[in-house]
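Q: Is it fine to ask for two folds in a single conversation?
A: Yes, each is treated on its own. Send the first.
Q: Here.
A: Result:
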Amino acid sequence: MAGTDDAVDDDALYVLTAVLLTPAQFPSVLGDDFPAACAALGLEPYAEGYGLVLGQDSEGARWTVVIDDVSLVAVAIASWDCGMEYDLSPDERTVVAALPGWPLAVAVAAPNVPAPHDPATEEGDRPPLAPPDTDEWGPAQRRLGADEIALQWAEWRQQIDDDEVQASSDTPDGEGPEPHKGVRRALKEAHGYVESPPPTGRVRSSFAPGGARTLRADGPGWSLVARTDDIAFVLLDEEPCEVLPVGRGPELPALLEALDKMAVRPA
């Protein structure tokens, strides 16, 4: 593999970016949980996880290379996030699979090679991976929306008037003033996760300021993002592009605390 320098190697993959595929950190566009995300790529849900390296070959074709050296990819991502250069060049012995296409949208391209395009495939080959259509709404777009709220929590939170969410019900049995049916269902199913653990990665916990945690939970037709010290937001398949706030109320704090205790966390 190679970086994006000026030389063109016919056998090289010019690395553009990389993401982790682990129980605690995976592209949620691929599925509601870690096993589902692995299945979307034809991979076994290996507990240690994988690294996904996205790049182009010398002809410009898009490829997603799956490697089992998770720590290498984690170091590369951390370095890039800090604005540092890092030459991500996995050993060929760590390669698990090379999949045509990219599952995520990539805004950059390798220099001195043709523009990004899907590689040619033969009959019987798996179709190239492709990011979801942002003009449509469905499970993948719903999960991407929840990811965006988690990343931009402060911006979303400041749009919510606390008085407006006081009336939102967070009781799983539907009692309370004018509860939203879909939100009620999502909270009830989230409560069920506490009693009967779901597949790995359905509930994830990550760092948040002030000693709090950011929670991400997904289920059939819904996604939840919350701060353990604040409110929650719910997105639903049946409510395109709608973000539904859930006030703290009497039930939400205990639910978030219980979910955080069972959630998987980044190493």
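Q: Second one now.
A: Result:
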Amino acid sequence: MMKAIFITGGGSGIGRATAEYFAAKGWFVGLADVNAAGMAETAALLPAGGSSSHILDVRDREQWDRVLAEFTEKTDGRIDLLFNNAGIGAGGPLSETPTEEIDRIIDINLKGVFYGAQAGFKYLKATAGSALVNTSSAAGLYASPRMSSYAATKFGVRAMTQSLDQEWAEHGIKVRAIMPGFIDTPLLDVSSTGSNLSIREMVRAAGLEFTPVEKVAEAVWKAAHGNHTFLPIGKTARKIAFLARWAPGLLMQRGRTLAKAAGPGTA
């Protein structure tokens, strides 16, 4: 039986690029998303018969059990890699952020990752050499202004990853977190609360670079097969990782630059 990867957020962006990358290496790909049309577009890019698609709201713990059971019926019970990737972007002053948005980002970006790990454990344990890879962020290395809710979820994913990598070692399961900088995906088109600018426009105004999704897909492979628990991706993420350790004061200055890029009265 060919190896199998299950990808949340498989309807676009990082999830789609990762599906293409692993399919090209002969893996059977499980796509999960709330966006059926997006998953159909991803599936059309994969080899015929080499994937399955599943509607999944990662906030629903019971859906996780049902969907993974459906997927593993097609893989003889194996999951070699569970990629906890689904997430949403958000930004803006906390004082102006609706409580519904705070709840939504925590439920999807953090609780959804916990639920995926919990539901996937028995399949990963039963598959020799398996891995759980979680999408964290450079925001999980250092929290910039106007990103408190988002950064909190990504720090949480980082902490969960570190804990589970030790907890699950006895079962032969690697647990890893990729930590990309700004990735050129539709998530960046979301407007920042309290600003007329999208996150994409703010990043450009601050003079920061975007990392192609193809580089992130390659990093997922490296994370699952390598020995590093955390994998910063892109020049920005690697710089943040370095500065967070050795020069946090410079990061504070950079954060103020990003806040100013949002426009007058919104910092």
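Q: Anything structural to flag on that second result?
A: Two points. The domain at 4-261 is CATH 3.40.50.720 (Rossmann fold). The beta strands are 4-8, 28-33, 51-55, 81-84, 131-135, 174-180, 230-233.
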